[in-house]
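The authors assume throughout that readers already know how a fold can be written as discrete tokens. In essence, backbone conformation is discretised, so a fold becomes a row of integers matching the chain in length. A single example would do more here than another paragraph of explanation. For illustration, here is how one protein appears when written out as sequence plus structure tokens:

…
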Amino acid sequence: MEATFENWESEFLQMGMYVVLTAYLFQKGSSESKPVGKAAPQDEDPRAATKGADTPWPVRRGGWVLKVYEHSLSGLFFLLFAASIILHAVGGANAYSEEQTAHGQPPVTVLEYVGTSQFWFESFQNWQSEFLAVAVIVGASVYLRERRSAESKPVAEPHYETGT
């Protein structure tokens, strides 16, 4: 349980941060970036959109429902991250307590386990590898290509071209 949710927590943190950072950061030449200095469809205010039967319900409803929906993708990932970190702590506290009692030490609570260096070592070890992987794909996609991949610019496109 501890190892599974430790891994999931880093995945959900990575995806949540990826969604948020790509909304606000630009990287000239990256296929992952919105165009630099130009309006992007993702930036359009949904309140000004023409609403039809196929428009998502939260957009038609408006108000606080739309406000939540505007950030629902990152919100989902951060909720999944929070659930994973809690379940990592619960599973880790059980495993850590078993180790403790095997060595004649008292078991720990979940909160005590979250205060241990082991919990944070497990978390940060996974987090850094996830962020490294994202940094490499975003940086490499400026100069390298993968024909037929949606994650790559067209093979013949110049390095300085940003997004589509």
In short: The two ends are 41 Å apart (CA to CA). The mean pLDDT is 87. Residues 1-24+57-164 form one domain. The first helix runs from residue 2 to 24.
